[in-house]
Amino acid sequence: MVKLNEQDRKILATLEFRAHEPLANIARLCKLRESTVRATLQRFISEKLIITRRLYINPYLLGWTNYAIFISFGQEGTKEEVRFKAYLSKQSNVTWIADLGGEYQMSISVAARHISEVADFISKLTENFPGLILAKTISTRVKLKTFPRKYLSENTHKGLEFIQGGLGNYSLDEIDKKIFKAFSLPGFDSFRRLSERMGIPKSTFDRRVKNLIEKGVIQGLYYILEPSLIQIQEYRLLIKVTKPQEKFSERLLAEVKTLPQVRKWIHCVGEWDFELEINVRTGREVTIFISELKSRFANEITTVNAIPLFGEISVPATKAFFN
Question: Which neighbouring-strand residues pair with 275?
Answer without folding.
Answer: 238, 266
